[in-house]
Specification:
The protein is of the alpha+beta class. The chain is built from seven helices and 23 strands.
């Protein structure tokens, strides 16, 4: 069965690229069984997903669209959502578009320029990406994580679209897993049984302990990062920082010997998202929590040797969004599966932050698992 790409009801512009016909999921929503090319019959599976982050919800959406019954068990209680921004590079943006999620309709803006400075404020390069972006089948977008997560939640629960709505459950802490029976045991004693379990529970995955090599634990890469948001207008209003915010879609980097500042716009170019990477010994960030509040004084101390214009940008950080966390790495697991359990995203392969490819690979994992 071949369908054309589904387009949103309303678009913010009429320049979205057109794509050729592409195969999408067969709709089993009427509960019927379908003959496969080999002649064997198949029907919907019950999929239990541990973790309702970007990877877990993308998997839920893709599996729902393939006709499966999906339950997502998320430890978070659904309130006080936090987050900064994420690159949706052409690989991940393409997957989301094929699932019917058009990030430009939820405030994602294209990345149009890459500019680099050194610590004294000297510009070393500025690249207009207009032409190079034409090589990609899909746009390179910069999105607010909260908006992306909220849209994934809406799509998986919606009664519209192919498949049955996902059973998305909050405040569900998984205490144990049985990989032979595909059963998740919650801390309240409840058992949730399916045909397959997907562990999408992040870098400190409990599901990972059930696969070969699951004793491996994430370790510090030696770097930590501050992250925070700044209103673009605040940067425009200051003569010292105006040049860093004048052009829409511009990613700006300040490069030091052992530290760097990365800033790029999101939310229709209204917010600037910052990631400030530095040696871990310069801050006391915990290894097990990426929502620990950061200190503006500590931020400015770490970047004391940077140009005054860079420090002026940092001083505009929103205290409510200022966080600091350690960047973690991990040895390669020998396998990502055990019987009826499969791992996804950071549970399987933690990524250091680079062009949003941690989230991007989780999105690709989700699409691969749904095939």
């Amino acid at each position: 069965m071949v369908l054309r790409e589904r387009h949103p009801t309303q678009r913010q512009h009429n320049t979205l690229p057109k794509f050729p016909d592409m195969p999408v999921a067969l709709d089993y929503s009427n509960g019927s069984r379908v003959e496969t090319p080999s002649g064997a019959s198949c029907g919907p599976l019950k999929i239990v997903i541990i973790g309702g982050g970007i990877g877990g919800l993308t998997a839920a959406l893709a599996l729902r669209q393939n006709g499966h019954d999906v339950v997502v068990l998320e430890q978070w209680d659904g309130s006080n959502e936090t987050g900064a921004a994420i690159h949706l590079a052409p690989n991940s943006n393409g997957v989301l578009r094929r699932l019917g999620l058009y990030a430009e309709t939820i405030g994602a803006n294209p990345m149009l320029r890459h500019t680099e400075y050194v610590t004294d404020g000297s510009q070393i390069r500025s690249l207009d990406l207009t032409e190079s972006n034409k090589q990609w089948q899909h746009q390179w977008l910069l999105a607010h994580r909260i908006h992306l997560h909220a849209e994934l939640q809406r799509l998986v629960k919606s009664r519209d679209g192919p498949g049955r709505p996902v059973d998305l459950r909050y405040s569900c802490t998984v205490k144990d897993l049985n990989c032979d029976t595909a059963t998740a045991i919650l801390d309240n004693g409840e058992s949730v049984e399916g045909d397959v379990i997907i562990g999408a529970d992040g870098v400190f995955s409990a599901a990972r302990t059930k696969v070969k090599g699951g004793h491996l634990r994430p370790f510090s890469s030696g770097k930590s990062a501050f992250r925070f948001l700044v209103k673009k207008q605040d940067a425009l209003d200051d003569p010292l920082t105006r040049k860093f915010a004048e052009r829409d879609g511009e990613l700006v980097m300040f490069l030091g010997p052992d530290s760097k500042i990365v800033a790029y716009p999101c939310k229709n170019n209204e917010l600037l998202n910052f990631v400030c990477i530095h040696p871990s010994e310069k801050t006391s960030a915990p290894a097990d929590d990426w929502n620990t509040g950061g200190s503006k004084k500590a931020l400015l101390d770490v970047y004391a040797d940077f140009d005054e214009s860079a420090r002026a940008l940092l001083s505009k950080s929103d205290p409510a969004s200022l966080k600091v966390w350690q960047l973690l790495d991990m040895e390669t697991l020998p396998t990502w599966v055990n019987n009826k359990l499969a791992l996804l995203g950071d549970a399987a392969h933690p990524f250091l932050p680079h062009q949003g490819q941690g989230g991007g690979q989780a999105i690709e994992d989700a699409a691969a698992l749904a095939v």
